[in-house]
Amino acid sequence: MHAPQVAVWRARANAEAAVDQMAAEPVQPRGLTLRDAAGILAASRRLGIAGLTLHSRIVRIAGTTQDELIERFAGDLGVALRAIAEALRTGGRAEPLPPLRAHQIALERALAEQGDPAVEVLVSESDLIVDGINTIGSITERHVA
Question: What pTM, to 2 d.p., does this model score?
Answer without folding.
Answer: 0.78
